[in-house]
Predict the 3D structure of the following.
Amino acid sequence: MSRIHPTAVVDAGAQVAEGVEIGPWCIVGPGVVLEDDVRLVSHAVVQQDTTVGARTVIHPFCVIGGDPQHTGYKGETVRLEIGTDNSIREHSTFNRGTPQGAGVTRVGSNGLFMTGAHVGHDCVVGDNVVMANNATLGGHARVGSRVFLGGLAAVHQNGRVGQGAIVGGLAAVTRDVIPYGSAWGNHARLHGLNLIGLKRKGYDKTAVRRLLAAYRDLFEGGGTFAERLDAVEAAYADLPEIMEITAFIREDGKRPLCLPGE
């Protein structure tokens, strides 16, 4: 049975599942779906046309499902979809999509979005993502699973951060960060692989050495970058992580690639 505080305002068009807790002074707008055991702690707004996955907790003073911050938005029906088991901390803001984009913003599951995190319109965010305090995603940004964004880091609109990457605090990410990469600085530069993340995922020393060798061959070897990319694909075809990196590079991203020393 749901528990709704008497000071909360829940629109008649909202769908509230079993076990949902809506705390004091919360507002739940039209077209909102709160799945099983979602918890709105207090003073949280889920504005409209938003699905919040099971067991996600939204803390005070968040605005979730707000209008996209886009001058071309004229009130069209657009959505935000959030997965399960997320923790969304105080003052975070997640915007809905735009008709000019995909019409929907998507956030995965098992994420931790610390105080003041912002997910802009039309973003796609993977699973197990951590956005530290005041980390920001511009519109249309794509963030893979198991990414860590440090405090006050900002990903430029249309930017990509590949799966398993880490971005340091205060980094201005104006170029795409490869999967498993480690980028930091203002503007952010690539400084190798996310070794801490790889070790935490259980990669042994032999596997890490091969990944580092492939990284050096790709970014520090002789010849042109295109030649090195072809050579690495051929030499390390048995390493799915390297194949993911090369596929990421070959994809037609809208931002330039974050490279060492640039």
Summary: The chain has a mean pLDDT of 97.
